[in-house]
Every structure is written in structure tokens, then in C-alpha cells.
């Protein structure tokens, strides 16, 4: 978490931890990183803070099974 807090352009960080698996593949959880726009993400990917956090993630993640998905939020209601 301390490394994630240092990431430039990161507006919000959410960890959702698995409490129950119902079918499918088991994951311990997911994390969401929120940025203002795609340009902020692209800038982050070139930052030394990102490289440091990425290397640290290898200590506790199965990096071969990590999936990264860039999305754009669409609020249907609420």
C-alpha cells in the first residue's frame, strides 16, 4: 500500500477481497486503480514509482495470472 500511495496521477485505489467463490476460477481478490483519464495512465506507466510498485507486486502476486483491463465507467443508475 505505501508504494501505491506514491503513484503519480492515481485518484482512487480500491481492493475487493474474495469472501466466497461461486464457480469459475478462484481469485483472492481484485484491485481497481482510478485515474482522471487515459493520459494519466500512460504517464504513470513511464514513471519510476510504477516500476517500483510493479517489481514489488512480484513478491505477493502470481504475475503470470494477473489481468489488466482498462475501462471507462458507465453509471447505469445510482
Shape: globular
Mean pLDDT level: 88
Q: Give the count of structural domains.
A: 1
Order of SSEs, N→C?
A: HEEHH
Q: Helical percent range?
A: 25-40%
The fraction of residues assigned to DSSP E strands is 15-25%
What structural class is derived from the secondary structure elements?
alpha+beta
Report the major sheet. 2 strands, antiparallel
Counted by DSSP, the helix tally is 3
Strand order of the largest sheet: 1-2
Ranges where pLDDT stays below 50 over 5 or more residues in a row are none
Q: What radius of gyration results from the CA coordinates?
A: 14 Å
How many angstroms separate the termini? 29 Å
- How would you classify the quaternary structure? single chain
What is the count of β-strands?
2
Commentary on this structure:
The structure is a single chain. This protein has helices at residues 2-5, 38-45, 48-57, and strands at 12-17, 29-34. Helix content is 28%, strand content 15%. By secondary structure, the chain is α+β, with helices and mostly antiparallel strands. The chain has one domain. It has 3 helices and 2 strands, in the order H-E-E-H-H. A two-stranded antiparallel ribbon has the order 1-2.
Label this structure with key terms.
78 residues; alpha+beta; two-stranded antiparallel ribbon; 3 helices; 15% strand
SSE topology sketch:
Blueprint: H1 2-5, E1 12-17, E2 29-34, H2 38-45, H3 48-57
Antiparallel strand pairs: 1-2
Short description:
The chain is α+β, with helices and mostly antiparallel strands and 78 residues long.
Amino acid at each position: 500500500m505505501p508504494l501505491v500511495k506514491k503513484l503519480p496521477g492515481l485518484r482512487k485505489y480500491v481492493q475487493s477481497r474474495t469472501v466466497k467463490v461461486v464457480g469459475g476460477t478462484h481469485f483472492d481478490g481484485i484491485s481497481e486503480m482510478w485515474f482522471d483519464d487515459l493520459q494519466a495512465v500512460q504517464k504513470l506507466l513511464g514513471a519510476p514509482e510504477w516500476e517500483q510498485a510493479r517489481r514489488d507486486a512480484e513478491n505477493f502476486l502470481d504475475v503470470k495470472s494477473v489481468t489488466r483491463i482498462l475501462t471507462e465507467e458507465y453509471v447505469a443508475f445510482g
